[in-house]
Amino acid sequence: MNAKEVLEFAKKNNVKIVDLRFTDFPGQWQHCSYPISEVDEGTFEDGMGFDGSSIRGWQAINESDMLMIPDPETAFIDPFFDHPTLVMICNIEDPITRQPYSRDPRWIARKAETYLKSTGFGDTAYFGPEAEFFIFNDARFSSGPDHGFYSINSDEGAWNTGRDESGKNLAYKPRHKEGYFPVPPIDSLQNVRSEMVLTMEKIGIQIEAHHHEVATAGQAEIDMRFTSLLKMADQLLMYKYVTKNVAKKNGLTVTFMPKPLYADNGSGMHVHQSIWKGGKPLFAGDGYAGLSKIGLNYIGGVLKHSRAIAAITNPTTNSYKRLVPGYEAPVNLALSSRNRSASCRIPMYSPSPKAKRVEVRYPDPACNPYLAFAAMLMAGIDGIENKIDPGPPLDKNIYALSPEELKGIPTMPGSLEESLNELEADHEFLLKGDVFTEDVLSTWIEYKRTAEIDAVRMRPHPHEFELYFDV
Prior knowledge:
Elements: H1 3-12, E1 17-23, E2 29-35, H2 43-46, E3 48-51, E4 65-70, E5 76-77, E6 85-93, H3 105-119, E7 124-136, E8 138-144, E9 147-153, H4 190-202, E10 207-212, E11 219-224, E12 227-228, H5 229-249, E13 253-255, E14 269-277, E15 280-281, H6 293-313, H7 319-322, E16 335-337, E17 344-346, E18 358-360, H8 369-385, H9 403-406, H10 416-425, H11 428-431, H12 438-457, H13 462-468
Parallel strand pairs: 1-6, 16-17
Antiparallel strand pairs: 1-2, 3-4, 4-6, 5-6, 7-11, 7-12, 7-13, 7-14, 8-9, 10-11, 14-15, 14-18, 17-18
Helix pairs in contact: 3-5, 3-8, 4-5, 5-8, 6-8, 6-10, 10-12
């Protein structure tokens, strides 16, 4: 839709409120609402002002004025508000220069798509993330100078088999690591996930499947059909918005935190990706697992730069509590077909060239999708440009390999601090085409170190009291 069509759409749907949204630096949706009378075709040129100094990682207070420029192609009717509300996702501009704001994550994703076209390698990068999440009945946490705790609960948590549930416990709790695919009553969240799916479809997201995931206590996955990089990043924020609000409507809560539950699987976000040109897939060929040279080089670039882009694809201290051996988390940087213990897997479900893609398995859903997708694309393009060989495939269960066999296989960083150090040392490929800038990367690194790493490192951990109180 263009601006005129959006206003006609709003009139047809009796819209009373227009809600403009954008994404802050870490990846959270922000919004401001306006009566429909305040919005006309000029709004799509002039934008709406807001205070950029109040947004995490953005402007200083002395240069706080910013503009939201709505993208008419993103318009949809919000499915949760009482009053008819039209939502649009915005690009951010400087009100003085009228240039796109360099730290706007959506602008970085747009530049990544433009850079791909400029290389001549392809014209479209397709992304298909599988974002896992937990649906809990209760989540409590608090942190202060004198205390720190969290407590989560789920009616289907394995630890609740002995709980008194209003005088009668009906059991059927999925055991740890046994939540993948059992039918109800063990899978107790079918109706909630279906409501999430139908709501997503209502606002224009094409869904392929939904199911219970491996962990106990309500781990879930809903799979969106792949689409272009920018559109998928938009949709992933819509996905999070819908899952959280449908859950709340049902007296539940959703978290995309990578590792909220000890001793069971964390929530990853396997990201399927491929490059096309002129409507034709470029990753299909006669090489390993049916891959083309371009496809193999793309994977080579991703593998080479994975330790650096981990600071963007796995951007929390909690992310590295998931990236440990033994929980289906691909800590070893290797290529394989079908093998889910490899960080880059080539799905073999279909022989169709259109289905040929790489599944990068280490990212998690705590990432900012605009930045994460752009970073992976830039790593892959670097692999194509420099003809980077991904190395020999590892068609074995990597977790079962001996220490001798694991020698020479690089691994993911073990902490957010380590990944940030890697990003500082290896980021030239991200600067090509001015997609990322030195300012964006240095701000990201500083923000993560001060607001997250130091904040966690300086606080006592609850388990430390169990380990050390009696020393």
